[in-house]
Amino acid sequence: SNKITIAIDGFSSTGKSTIARELAKELGYIYVDTGAMYRAVTLYVMRHLFVTESNFDEEAILRHLPFINLRFVFDEKLGYGEIYLNKENVEKEIRLMEVSNNVSKVATVSKVREMLVKQQQEMGKDKGVVMDGRDIGTVVFPDADLKLFMTASTQTRAERRFKELRERGEKVEFDEVLKNVKDRDYMDSTREDSPLIKAEDAIEIDNSNMSLQEQFDKILKLARQKI
Ligand code: C5P
């Protein structure tokens, strides 16, 4: 059968990565979490290049880009790849609230996007890939065979994210999470370079009132129609 490229875009905390990962497993495809790549670059910037607590010098980022090495290492037990930043597994650290608070700003830097988009295109060049992010169907793979655009109400997304963070033991308040979700929505959809928009040919899925199983079934069916 025919290997395809599946692009899943959408706002933060729409459950894109859970679905994308399951879908890749089912189809025997590679899964690429592009948000993890922006988060890992952000972690590097926070560790080395912050001038003040949440401000960076863009010139410094440009100078450091050649030294930021990202890699996904497949874990048999987990069934998906974990992200490594210069040989360090940063999968856990990149999910911290602090990183979430800074990532959308780092993601506005065009040279950062250029570098990551190139790597993403390379990872998906043989098809058989499920990639999730903000600009996959519009910029990374404008010719993707199947494009999905996931949405859910802001409240629903903030509740999901809050629950996730609490379960991981982070001491966050709901209002802080809600604010982060709203701020990222705004920054991601208004930035100049590759803003988050639904590709014309993307299928929109509002999962506010859908179970994971319902979403999975629907998306798998859409994928099978293309394979
Ligand atoms: O998907 P996730 O919420 O982990 O992404 C974190 C942030 O990375 C997003 O809010 C966005 O600012 C940035 N991002 C992006 N383009 C992508 C994926 C993520 O700008 N393709």
Automatic annotation (TrEMBL):
Positions annotated to bind ATP: G10, F11, S12, S13, T14, G15, K16, S17, T18
Predominant place of localization: cytoplasm
Catalytic activity: CMP + ATP = CDP + ADP; dCMP + ATP = dCDP + ADP
Localisation: Cytoplasm
Keyword Lipid metabolism belongs to the record: no
Keyword Methyltransferase: no
EC number: 2.7.4.25
InterPro entries named among the record's database cross-references: Cytidylate_kin, Cytidylate_kinase_dom, P-loop_NTPase
A Pfam family: Cytidylate_kin
Family to which the UniProt record says this protein belongs: Belongs to the cytidylate kinase family. Type 1 subfamily.
PANTHER family hit by this protein: CYTIDYLATE KINASE, CYTIDYLATE KINASE/PANTOATE-BETA-ALANINE LIGASE
Protein name per its UniProtKB record: Cytidylate kinase
Organism: Autumnicola tepida
Classification lineage: Bacteria, Pseudomonadati, Bacteroidota, Flavobacteriia, Flavobacteriales
